[in-house]
Amino acid sequence: MTALRAPALAALGLLAFLLFWEAMPRLGLINPAFLPPPSTIPAAFLNEIRLGVWGEAVWSSLSHYLVGLVTGAGAGIALGVLVGMFRGFEALTAWIVRLLRPIPGLAWVPFAIIWFGVQPSAAVFIIAIGVFWIVFFATQGAVRGVDRDLVEVAQAFGFRSPLSRLTKILLPAATPGILVGLRTALGQAWMAVVAAEIFGVPGVGARMMQASSLLSTDIVVVYMLTMAGLYGLFDTGFVALQGWLLRWRA
């Protein structure tokens, strides 16, 4: 019974939230045009599928999401490893990082349009920037946090070259920290998708902006829930992969 208590309470809380949401527009406390009741969402979802809009928008956003995630995460891991391994490289890039890190992803939208035009590559660029910093700092911290005793033992056993230290000691030891950064990046990438598509690149973000301009808030909610569902699937899959990669720690 105890094992079922937490899921039951979670389901009860969700049900209470949905009932509260349904009641607010039904009782006239909120204009339904501004916040539609959840009972109208399934019909809007089915209509988007029937028109073929939902599948097209999701496919476009998924392509931007995956390419931007891989690009940003790959660059973040590569640079994070270099900075974590070599103090000189960290000093060389310190002020570049301090200068660029505070700039939000949306601030890069004008340059994305100028450099790439209103094209999928512009969306990929914005998403990659949003992902890069999370993975970079996670990787740098994980590599820098590896026990120095492990490195000294590896050198005593002949692993003296940077490549051998990286592959035999640093990466295996830093993998848990890197994976934490990657998991955070999965969610950040979805947030960046909307920002990357609001200027006209086809996808979920563009469809949400189009619907909001027509006060079709039920459609906006459909795509909000779509992103939440897709993130849940990616996160679940990533947790399974994380457990498999770190099975040696069990």
What order do the helices and strands come in, and which of them pair?
Layout: H1 2-26, H2 41-51, H3 53-85, H4 87-100, H5 109-116, H6 120-144, H7 148-156, H8 162-197, H9 204-213, H10 217-245
Helix pairs in contact: 2-10, 3-4, 3-6, 3-8, 3-9, 5-6, 6-8, 7-8, 8-9, 8-10, 9-10
List keywords for this structure.
mainly alpha, 250 residues, 80% helix
Question: Which residues form runs of ≥5 with pLDDT under 50?
Answer: none
Please describe the biggest sheet, giving its number of strands, its sense, and whether it closes into a barrel: none
Mean pLDDT equals 86
Task: Report the sheet-strand fraction.
Answer: under 5%
Given helix and strand content, the structural type is mainly alpha
